[in-house]
Design goal:
six-stranded antiparallel β-sheet, mainly beta, single chain
Length: 97
């Protein structure tokens, strides 16, 4: 098993950055772990067409899923300053603090 470490810059979009990485072009299995703070997160429930965007300081609790050259399916959960946890399918406009 190979591993790689990436640091996303402040202002980077997490969703787009992960989809641009794809370091192993012939693989469809990835284990993703992340720590850090966000200034905005966007996620969506499969039962709702519209994404939800929260714009405030949030801490990444979990980030898991897969991405391939064709598509991605990534889940995220975040916590705010009051320990409330939010999460669903990761969408663009999830910004590194």
């Amino acid at each position: 098993m190979e591993h790689s470490f990436y640091k996303l810059s402040s202002g980077a979009d997490v969703y787009n950055s992960l989809n641009e990485l794809n370091p192993y072009h012939n693989s469809t299995s990835f284990l993703i772990n992340a720590v850090g703070d966000l200034s905005a997160v966007s996620f969506k429930c499969p039962l709702n067409e519209k994404s939800i965007i929260l714009e405030k300081q949030l801490e990444v609790i979990t980030l898991t899923g897969y991405f391939t050259t064709i598509d991605s399916h990534i889940h995220i959960s975040v916590s705010d300053e009051n320990y409330k946890v939010f999460g669903r399918h990761l969408q663009p406009v999830t910004i590194v603090l």
